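ARCHIVE CARD
CATEGORY: sequence design from structure
SOURCE FIELD: tokenized fold
FIELD CONTENT:
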């Protein structure tokens, strides 16, 4: 039973409020991932160099005709 004296309205949020919530959550997630991905390019370059050092590409055999 609901307490008397309170005016309870429909609890469905307005479309604009939902849009704002989605926007704010997207912004929060973007900040979160930006922190995680910082330095990813540098790490990728280092990994590529390490891979090339360990597994050098075979030289193409030249044929003498």
């Amino acid at each position: 039973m609901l307490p008397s004296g309170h005016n309870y309205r429909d609890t469905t949020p307005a479309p604009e409020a939902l849009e704002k919530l989605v926007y704010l959550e997207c912004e929060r997630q973007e900040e979160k991932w930006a922190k995680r991905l910082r330095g990813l390019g540098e790490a990728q370059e280092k990994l590529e160099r390490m891979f090339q050092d360990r597994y050098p590409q075979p030289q193409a055999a030249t044929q003498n005709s």
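CARD ANNOTATION: The chain has two helices and no strands. Helices lie at 15-37, 40-54.
SHELF: design records, drawer C
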